Every structure is written in structure tokens, then in C-alpha cells.
Amino acid sequence: MRTYDFTPLYRATVGFDRMADLLDRVMTNDVATNGYPPYNIEKTGDDAYRITVAVAGFAPSDLNVEVRENALIVAARKEKGDAKRTYLHRGIATRAFEKTFQLADHVHVTGARHEDGMLHIELERQVPEALKPRQIQIASHGSVDAKAIEGQTVEA
């Protein structure tokens, strides 16, 4: 098990403590959950993503997908209906799990579907217009626009 000390990062940066906390959480979660269940994260467009979680053995009613603050939480709990079965080998794990994915700012879940033992969760980055980059026109000193900006009246 590897552990990293992020204390120097806190001392050398201002306002990045959320990123350091996220790195620390990711390192801790990967070790703790042991990779169950397996999942993929793919980029499907410029601002679109898909998380696919392998949920073999779980029905859609056994799954719960929830968004809390900047976290996507995928959980599953199987009802105990296997008491009557006797397994010689049980390779399909249907144990309960809770998987947390940290979402960046302005990333929203747009949908989820269960298909062929896979849970597909669609995400999209929706940056508000106020935060998008915008081009600012530069006016020259002698132009009409520059005088209007300075508060002077323009005579025609």
C-alpha cells in the first residue's frame, strides 16, 4: 500500500486544497475498494463523458445512482434470494457496493441505462455562459467606439 503526503502541496499553493483532497481521496478509495466493481470512463464528445460500471447479476431495481454535491454515487444491494441455491463455484460477485466518482465543476448527469449487465451513466459539462471565454473588442484611440467608451458624446 502506497501513501503520499500532500503537506508540501498545501504549503506551496493557495486555493488548491480541494485538488489535493481529491488526490488523497482517490488514492485511498482505490486501495480500499479493491477495484470492485470494474468500470470504464470514456470521453464521448467535446463535453460529454460516459461511466460504464459492470453490474452483472444486478437488476435495475437493485441499483441506485445519486448525485450529491460534486460526487456521483453508484450503489447496489442484492436481495438475499440465493439461500435455496447450492453453488459448486461462485465466480459472479453480487456483493453490495458503493462507488463514488468525484465530478468536476459544471459536470451534470444527463441519464443512466442498464443494458447487458452494464450500467451506463451519461455526463455532460455544461459551462454557464457567464463563465465561457468571450472576445473583447479593442478600440483604437481615435475611433468612435473609444470615445463612446470614455463617456464622450460623438457628433456626426
From TrEMBL:
SUPFAM superfamilies assigned: HSP20-like chaperones (SSF49764)
The UniProt record lists the keyword DNA-binding: no
Q: Which PROSITE patterns match?
A: SHSP (PS01031)
Q: Name one Pfam family in it.
A: HSP20
> Which intervals hold domain SHSP?
30-141
UniProt keywords, alphabetically: Stress response
Q: What is this protein called?
A: IbpA_2 protein
